[in-house]
Fold these 2 entries.
Entry 1:
Amino acid sequence: MNHLIDIKNLKNEEILEIIELAKYYEKHVPEGTQRKKQKGSVVLLFFENSTRTRFSFEMASRKLGLDVFNFEAQNSSISKGEGVFDTLNNLNAIGCDIAIIRHTKEGFIEELARKHYAYELSLVNAGEGKSSHPTQALLDFYTLTKHLGSLDGKKIVIVGDITHSRVAKSNIELLSRFGAKIVCCSPDYFKDSTLKHIKYEFDINTALKDADAVMGLRIQKERLENQIPLANYIKDYQINEKNMPKNAILMHPGPVNRDVEISSALLDTKGDVIIEQPRNGVFVRMAVLDIIFEGVQR
Ligand code: NCD
């Protein structure tokens, strides 16, 4: 059989042959796929766009020898009205052990985790609304400690759209726990009033003084309710050759909007760590998946 295009092309004995083989495979794992079966399968469900996170999760999964599947919402039964939980429950039944999810709605992944699945399913948050992006914070932590050693007492300045940034929220939570002194710098319209114990500085030169690391953030256009005065923002908050401290490292989760949050000239001369971040993301995500799969295998 070269193709299976339509049942009408199959003879009855061919159908019975398929059924017999399926019965066999339900009980026997072919030699070649034994390792993969033990290791399991990963499905990526991204309901928001992504380059770095998606590719590094995929790379991490492949490096671990996992089977990795990309779920395309627009080509799936979600477009027929099926909800994400029912989709996941079915993907799980088909054989997916870990679902890596990016979604616009805060609290959505936790809500999904509380539901009952027919088989064991692990969920991994790959960025949720404006509230959390745990693996980004882990990879930023990894990158920071590689360059700075212990973060105790280190000054890390986060500049930009704090309100809408899940990267900022997860980093603030993680890095403060390791003793980093976080300073947020943004215009008032990007100040997040829910961040109670975080130092805010409205003047970029004061904020960046003696920084050990500077983290730029993208203006999250897709989450803005009102227009912002972009030219003024660039004038007052762009990280550039003039205000960037010489000895600090420059970071950004990507994608960078050149000449908006960081000047092109600075990016091209001091942007090495920004490119190192997604690379580190592969290793960190491998670790996360490996630990989860240890649990699955036990
Ligand atoms: C970030 C995100 O999606 O939260 N990107 C990323 O995961 N590396 C930041 C952004 O989109 O601005």
Entry 2:
Amino acid sequence: MGDQLLIKNAAQVVTPLGHTAIKGAAMKDVKVYENASVLIEDGHIVAVGDGAEWAKTVPADKQIDATGKTVLPGFVDSHTHFVFGGYRADEFLWRMEGMTYMEIMERGGGINNTMKATRNASAEELIEHSMDILEKMLAFGITTVEGKSGYGMDHDTELKQLEVMKELEQRQPVEIVRTFMGAHSIPPEYKGRNEEFLEFLVKKVMPDVKKADLAQFCDIFCEKGVFSIEESRKYLQQAKDMGFDLKIHADEIVTLGGAELGAELGCTSADHLLHASDEGIKALANSDTVATLLPTTAFCLKEPFAPARKMIDAGCAVALATDFNPGSGFTNSVPLMIALGVIYMGMTAEEAITALTLNGAAAVGRADTIGSLEAGKQADLVILQYPSYKFLPYHTGVNIVETVIKKGKVVHQA
Ligand code: NIG
Ligand code: FE
């Protein structure tokens, strides 16, 4: 008998089912087991169901009584920029006074501001800072997080950011999916020379990222005033040829056709999509690309929310993620994200759960191992304080995660 853990007597065990992203109307079909238990062995789920028999064989000190509580899959935050130096609190307040995100960026603030601080930070400083952030994520129930480079935009700092994430995975429990995002902005030394900058990334940085296996994904900020559709297509295709899986920051500020490009290139996810066109939504619905929506970014930028309802009704697989970063949205509040998704974006509580678990897992290419509670999957779970998943949006903006379990081990207790 391996290392066991039994979570017993839960008022509800709630989970989407499957090993791929769930599209459209099926997103609301989460399985709700009432008065149920989850049996775990050697870090994996063995079974979900009536636990009366299991309780007789699992040692008492390996049993967690979840009476009156709800068990869900661990949350997958599939889009963040959590490794960075410095802060941009001033810029946040300038935005509140009416300056736009792009105006700040054009004046040398924004991403290039964080770039300077990140270039100047040592790897150990970045690790220390990120450890604190990851601890906060874990407390919100995030058991897997995607993190992007992109605050270096030079060879060494890009690698430093990715190496920091690799090291962090050894030091704490949150699983980290690494994305190379050198094409996050145009650094001052390449101002007005987009093509040369992208060529530098492809020829001088990407091969080293690949060689050291530092990133699974490659991402680009496809946006008016940053990288065009044509530049993004060429760049992402080159990354694909080098063996990277793809992501794209698409249609965040203006309608550019990023959603269509994401579908065309077979990106694992197309993210933001606040301004995706009807054609873009249709293209995503007809593809395997996950539409990753980032409500807290729209909220902090005072932009309209991405049309989640329309996308789900059109048949898209929608994921929700925080986009945690020091600029456009300095928050990793899962409760705030759920509240915005359900209250303002027309998502049901069930759809929000699928978006945060199985579809988040699909958005990082890991739906075969995480994102749902079923036999064979990795035992990543959260236990909520209340007897129904409905409390997630209902107890608005409040963190109700009590216990977090990663690979069958309790890693956080409120
Ligand atoms: O996803 N849009 C580009 N990247 C981030 C913002 C990064 C920053 O402002 O530092 C985003 O919103
Ligand atoms: Fe982002």
